[in-house]
Amino acid sequence: MFYTCGPNEAMVVSGCGRSPPLLIAGGRVFVFPCVQQIQRISLNTLTLNVKSDKVYTRHGVPISVTGIAQVKIQGQNKEMLAAACQMFMGKSEGEIANIALETLEGHQRAIIAHLTVEEIYQDRKKFSDQVFKVASSDLVNMGIGVVSYTLKDVHDDQNYLSSLGKARTAQVQRDARIGEAQFKRDAVIKEAHAMQEKISAQYKNEIEMAKAQRDYELKKAAYDIEVNTKKAESEMAYQLQVAKTKQCIEEEKMQVQVVERTQQITLQEQEITRREKELEAKVWKPAEAERYRIEKIAEAEKQKLIMEAEAEAEAIRMRGEAEAFAMEAKGRAEAEQMAKKAEAFKQYKEGAMVDMLLEKLPLIAEEISKPLCSAQKVTMVSSGGSEVGAAKLTGEVLDIMSRLPSAVEKLTGVNISQALASRMG
Fold this sequence. Notes:
3-stranded antiparallel sheet
């Protein structure tokens, strides 16, 4: 057997072959009699008057709140429809509405307890959104969806809201009085500005009129001056013409005098030129020739002195170079001689030293005997006799000569006696 239902109703078919039960929202279904059962559940929208009396707010003020909610079982969502069938199958719309109302009222009271009177009264949309959000999350588990929620009324028995209204009314009245005073003040200010602009416009008009009068008088005076000038010019024209004629005559006379004076000046200049040429030929030319001759003689003397000085300097330089070369050659020869002597000393050692000493012994003896040679008179004093004194002097001289080899040996480290013996051998 076929069964049908409208869009505001849902059918649940259970029984043989229907596990889980078949859910149909707005449609038709075939049901086997005796072995299958069909049940219906309403999908109509339910209007709930959610009223919460004397609920204490967060500050302890009791208020009564009334809200209007629209709820319905969601037939398009199979899960929510199955949950609603499990909970409300066989119940009437009134019973379903009562369950949803109790749930909404409980959430409404809970939200009121967390808000102040001012927050509920001044921001109703916020309160409605909170109730809608909390109730929807709870009723959706029952398969019921909250279509809308609106706060309908808020009142209390303690005249708390009316006090708030009075304060607001007083504030509005105060603002009205302030606005009226400000409007009056602005009106007075604008009126003063209008009067000021009126006076300013009047003064500007008078100034423009004075300027126009001044321009008229200035132009009139300029025209009068121009007319008087023309009259004066016309009156003085004849006298000016007479004066110009006289001036032209005087200029012609002066021109004749200028021509005459110019001719005289030309003659004088020609005479001066002739005399200058004569003076140049007789005086300047000979003087110039003499000056040139003297300059050339002085320049020749100067060149002669310069050449002599340069020749002398060159001779001095060449003598200096020759002397320097001679000294350099002498020094080089002496250095070579000293190098050869040093080389000979290295080779012959004591023999070279003996040769040098033998060469220098006469000089040493000469130096030793110089004091005796310089003596002009030798007086010998002796208690014995003259022979004894002479012998004593001779012995002292011989003693000095005998100590000479030992002194040389101490100075040079060379034994002269051995060196002489070796050479003699």
